[in-house]
Amino acid sequence: MATAFTPFEESRAVGEFKEDLNRILICSDCREDPPNLIEEYSSGDMVCGSCGLVLDRIIDTRSEWRTFSGDDNGNDDPSRVGDAPNLMIDGDQLQTAIAFDGKGARNLAHLQNKVNQDKGTKALMNAYRDIQALTDSINAGSQVGNTAKHIFKMVEDKKALKGKSQEAIVAGCIFIACRQTNVPRTFREIYGLTKVSKKEIGRVFKQLEAFLQKMGGEDAVAKATGYGQQYTGTAATTADELCTRFCSQLGFPSPVYVENISRRLAARASEVSDLAGRSPLSIAAACIYMASYLAGHGRSYKQVSKAVDVSDGTVKTAYRFLYAAKDVVLTKEVFPEDSFAEVLANADKVPSS
User: Fold this and answer.
1) Tally of CA atoms within 13 A in the half-sphere of 35 that contains its CB
2) What digits encode the pLDDT tens for the residues 28-76?
3) Structural domain includes residue 234
4) Judgement on whether residues 341 and 250 belong to the same structural domain of the protein
5) Residues 6+ apart with CB under 8 A from 120
6) Which residues pair with 5 in a beta bridge?
7) 139-150, pLDDT tens digit by residue?
8) 324 shares a domain with 247
């Protein structure tokens, strides 16, 4: 039979300590075997369930779950930690936040925020919020948003582009971030996000590129661009890069196949002199229109123009020049694989207008 002991009995280990599994804890009053013990984690006590005698102190090894959600929305959001620190904001970010509860809490919170947050931090937070909202509106992804935030922080830290509106700087940062992360977005799309003129955004964009090239070699530039230690300017968005986005919006049975055809047409269309200088959007729209018929799933001008967000007349004009160069773009040199035999077979079925 196992030997019983109480917390008040003292024993000294001889030699190396080894856990003795034959020794069990029982109540010194009840002497029940097996013991009826209850672990009260709230108070940290080991209690006899029969008589209520406190036998020992225990340590609560459970996870410390706390709720950091707002008190006003009633959501239950348990977490073991608070919010993660924002690495793009200077400081340890361990300030106290005062809720708007109770008499005079609003005034107290206003004073506390005035002490803890300077104007620079507020400007950064406002810019980060605008960048996140704008990148989400064009489905650019988190990588573009984080890159744009890094670039904006570099500009803010160096006090560059003084006198320029924050909205124009934000638009320029997003445009550069899209190019550096290979997320094709046209200047027209970025311009449509803001109320700033095209001329102003163009000036800010050129100044931002010059600033980043001047700052080349610093770690911050590598973090912002993700392309090594030296910032390098990128070319304008091409038509074949835009075909990937727009083909998925037209509901083709095999959008990847149509996308592949349109990308090959767009790459070859750069050799067509009549299409030189035209917008990549109009060239991409014309190539997608032709590719839809080459794949056997023709789409109308209206459907293509709606997906690309250009007018019907723009698509028709660009397609007229593309069709005139049909003998140049529809060749075995452009489609050498056997998987594209259907493309060359359908070349005569492509509408002339």
Assistant:
1) 24
2) 888 888 888 888 877 888 899 888 888 888 887 766 665 555 555 555 5
3) no
4) yes
5) 90, 156
6) 25
7) 888 888 888 888
8) yes
